[in-house]
Amino acid sequence: MAAAGALLRRAAAAVPRIPFALPAIPTPDPPAPVLEAPALALPAAGAAMDLMAVPKKKVSKYKKGLRNGPKALKPVPVIVRCRCCGRVKLPHFYCCSGERGNPDSSSS
């Protein structure tokens, strides 16, 4: 094995070398030094780390709706009096013909 290595070295030395020059490529300026943020303080080996709760699966829209349903705003009924007859009614509801009743005139 050692003889084979010596033969290869002699054969490689016998091959003439051709000088090859690459064109000069301008090198870009080195980047500005980056200021590093201070390292985060890691807890000591004996200290306990606080872990946050992480859900195992995505909550579906149905389950989210069941949970948040009672939190929805409830409609507040507004009660108004009819300007013509004075009866209590909900706004935007028809109550009477809209004419005030005059005791002088009789309508047929």
TrEMBL record:
Record's keyword terms, sorted: Mitochondrion, Ribonucleoprotein, Ribosomal protein, Transit peptide
Subcellular location: Mitochondrion
Keyword Transit peptide among record annotations: yes
Record SUPFAM superfamilies: Zn-binding ribosomal proteins (SSF57829)
Cellular component GO terms held in the UniProt record: mitochondrion; ribonucleoprotein complex; ribosome
This protein's record includes keyword Kinase: no
Pfam families: Ribosomal_L32p
Family: Belongs to the bacterial ribosomal protein bL32 family.
Protein name: Large ribosomal subunit protein bL32m
Lineage: Eukaryota, Viridiplantae, Streptophyta, Embryophyta, Tracheophyta
